[in-house]
């Protein structure tokens, strides 16, 4: 009789534990959206490829439908995520800082303080491609030329015109999607395409496969000048990144971060952080630039509040988030 009682008590306890676990699991998903959109950039750039892959990983590992949305890029993503018109996005730290401080050209005075940082993505180097027959193979050769700089609000469209001014070049800047502008270079409607994206830039690889091209960037003297005036740092693109470029190429780059609206559920964001940062091999299969999507690179965000779900993830990994990056809504 006593043995039968303890057997029943054990079954009851186990049932209670399973019910409790089920309740916790259900509670963890309270406030989760049924689907989300990720702001990327134009098709043909690394943002769109990376964002589409990231969305697929969310769908597979977190169980929420996620779609990559074509946008104007980092600047516009800061505004759209701040306004809650996109749940997630991708941004470069230069435009992100301007948005944080209310200095975006597309939204003067709007401080995008409802944006929260998630995880580091990769560095964005700046490069130029031109047809070999054009004879354009240096930044100085762009003087007086028609040069595409990607969509308005993208990293390239923000920084390349500033670089040209710093270097005293009179460049006729044109805006548009990466895939469109590389096509215009092939058709002779543009003399060159100056872009910024994780390498290899798919639009550059595309044109390289079809016609002889020159792929180049800033020389050391030009790098020294622009790094004095802008939040960029020296970067080296390894030789072999592109089929026709055997030597290492110096240039400048900025860090990219994934972002979320502050109203996203903490537990939902936490699961996304785990899916991305605990599975770098999967991210690498999306795009080679994800080799820098590593937890230790979170230190490259120095001003934007992290999402509470991101703070929880970093602390569980033993990484202390600086006090000034803890958001007001965070509850320990």
TrEMBL record:
Pfam family for this entry, one: NMT1_3
Ranges in a coiled coil: none
Signal peptide positions (record): 1-26
Keywords, ordered alphabetically: Signal
Name under which the protein is recorded: TRAP transporter solute receptor, TAXI family
Gene source species: Ectothiorhodospira magna
């Amino acid at each position: 009789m006593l043995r039968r009682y303890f057997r029943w008590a054990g079954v009851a306890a186990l049932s209670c534990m399973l019910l409790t676990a089920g309740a916790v699991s259900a509670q963890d998903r309270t406030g989760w959206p049924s689907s989300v959109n990720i702001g990327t950039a134009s098709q043909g750039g690394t943002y769109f490829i990376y964002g589409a892959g990231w969305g697929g990983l969310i769908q597979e590992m977190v169980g929420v439908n996620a779609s990559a949305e074509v946008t104007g890029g980092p600047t516009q993503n800061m505004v759209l995520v701040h306004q809650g018109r996109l749940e997630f996005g991708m941004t470069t730290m230069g435009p992100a800082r301007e948005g944080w401080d209310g200095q975006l050209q597309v939204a003067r005075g709007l401080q995008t303080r409802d944006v929260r940082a998630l995880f580091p993505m990769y560095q964005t180097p700046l490069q130029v491609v031109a047809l070999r027959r054009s004879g354009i193979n240096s930044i100085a050769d762009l003087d007086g030329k028609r040069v595409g700089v990607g969509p308005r609000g993208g990293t390239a469209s923000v920084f390349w015109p500033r670089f040209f001014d710093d270097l005293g070049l009179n460049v006729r800047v044109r805006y548009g999607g990466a895939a469109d502008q590389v096509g215009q270079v092939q058709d002779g409607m543009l003399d060159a395409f100056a872009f910024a994206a994780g390498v290899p830039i798919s639009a550059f690889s595309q044109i390289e496969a079809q016609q002889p091209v020159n792929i180049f960037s800033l020389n050391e003297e030009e790098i020294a000048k622009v790094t004095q005036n802008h939040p960029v740092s020296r970067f080296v693109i390894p030789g072999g990144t592109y089929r026709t470029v055997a030597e290492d190429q110096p240039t400048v780059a900025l860090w990219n971060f994934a972002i979320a609206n502050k109203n996203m559920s903490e537990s939902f964001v936490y699961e996304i952080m785990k899916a991305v940062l605990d599975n770098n091999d999967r991210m690498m299969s999306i795009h080679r630039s994800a080799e820098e999507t590593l937890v230790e690179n979170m230190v490259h965000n120095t001003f934007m509040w992290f999402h509470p779900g991101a703070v929880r993830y970093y602390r569980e990994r033993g990484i202390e988030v600086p006090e000034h990056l803890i958001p007001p809504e965070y509850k320990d």
